[in-house]
């Protein structure tokens, strides 16, 4: 049981909940819930578990590639502390990524390809991207963008008309990753101001889509708390750009993805799904108290 908890800690369970929220938002965007046909519950399950495995595997490999650095900066993590060997962690991460791709492929070949792209870009980020000031955040953003598309791929044909929506999570995760640059040693306010501007673009973009779909009022039900949740800690970090404040801003940015996904769902006329997604927020917050988010 103790070993299981260590592996769970490596996977960042609170973050995994947000990746499932991305899938549910993508499913809502696909229109499959309002198509008049029976809901493909099994496909929804495949994609939800797929993204959980992909995200967990990507995070595990983050620790694998950072093992030497973590001996200095974060010696309490599982690998540098000796709780899990580097080899076992790599095997565990590989199995998770393989399972994520396989489960997605059970829905469709398109879903499998998207899952493969998520896995590839996660590995690229962990090995190379995180060390680059621009391509690192972009790389991480692409992982989330493909994840939203993975949800939409429950109806593969819908990707042709909705692929461009992936730009929004790319921009948002770019902002969070940019902010996280100063999480350990503190950061400069320039990155934080850029992140604030990009956050604003994301909020107005979702509001625009909600407006043209005549769902703005419902969307604001989720966008307003989303705005409050991300900007409150970010403004504090701007005033005092120390590691603790930046870490809090990153944590809030990651977990509040759930509210952003709920806003996406209601924007595409899936109100019940929006409430289901929003209900994941307390779960993610609870898990964030038990397991690290960053």
Automatic annotation (TrEMBL):
The chain crosses the membrane at residues 12-33, 39-61, 82-103, 109-126, 138-156, 162-180, 192-211, 217-235, 247-266, 272-292. It is found in: Membrane. Its main location: membrane. Signal peptide: none annotated. The keyword 4Fe-4S does not apply. Coiled coil: none annotated. Pfam families: UbiA (PF01040). It is a multi-pass membrane protein. InterPro entries: Prenyltransferase_related (IPR050475), UbiA_prenyltransferase (IPR000537), UbiA_sf (IPR044878). It comes from the Bacteria. Keywords: Cell membrane, Membrane, Transmembrane, Transmembrane helix. This is 4-hydroxybenzoate polyprenyltransferase. It comes from Pedobacter jeongneungensis.
């Amino acid at each position: 049981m103790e070993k299981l908890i260590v592996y769970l800690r490596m996977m960042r369970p609170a973050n995994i909940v947000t990746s499932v929220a991305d899938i549910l938002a993508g499913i809502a965007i696909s229109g499959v819930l309002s198509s008049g046909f029976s809901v493909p519950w099994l496909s929804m399950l495949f994609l939800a578990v797929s993204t959980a495995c992909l995200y967990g595997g990507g995070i595990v490999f983050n620790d694998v590639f950072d093992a030497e650095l973590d001996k200095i900066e974060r010696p309490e993590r599982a690998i540098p502390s000796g709780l899990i060997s580097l080899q076992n962690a790599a095997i565990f991460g590989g199995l998770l990524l393989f399972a994520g791709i396989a489960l997605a492929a059970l829905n469709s070949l398109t879903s499998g390809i998207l899952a493969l792209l998520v896995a590839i870009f996660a590995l690229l980020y962990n090995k190379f991207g995180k060390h680059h000031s621009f391509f690192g955040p972009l790389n991480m953003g692409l992982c989330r963008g493909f994840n939203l598309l993975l949800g939409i791929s429950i109806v593969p044909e819908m990707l042709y008309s909705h692929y461009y929506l992936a730009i929004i999570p790319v921009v948002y995760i770019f902002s969070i990753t940019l902010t996280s640059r100063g999480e350990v040693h503190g950061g400069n306010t320039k990155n934080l101001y850029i992140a604030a501007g990009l956050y604003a673009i994301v909020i107005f973009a979702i509001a625009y889509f909600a407006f043209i779909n005549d769902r703005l009022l419902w969307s604001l039900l989720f966008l307003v708390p989303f705005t409050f949740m991300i900007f409150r800690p970010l403004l504090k970090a701007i005033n005092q750009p120390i590691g603790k404040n930046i870490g809090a801003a990153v944590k809030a940015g990651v977990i509040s993805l759930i509210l952003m996904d709920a806003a996406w769902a209601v924007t595409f006329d899936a109100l019940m799904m929006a409430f289901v997604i929003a209900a994941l927020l307390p779960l993610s917050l609870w898990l964030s108290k038990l397991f690290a988010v960053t």
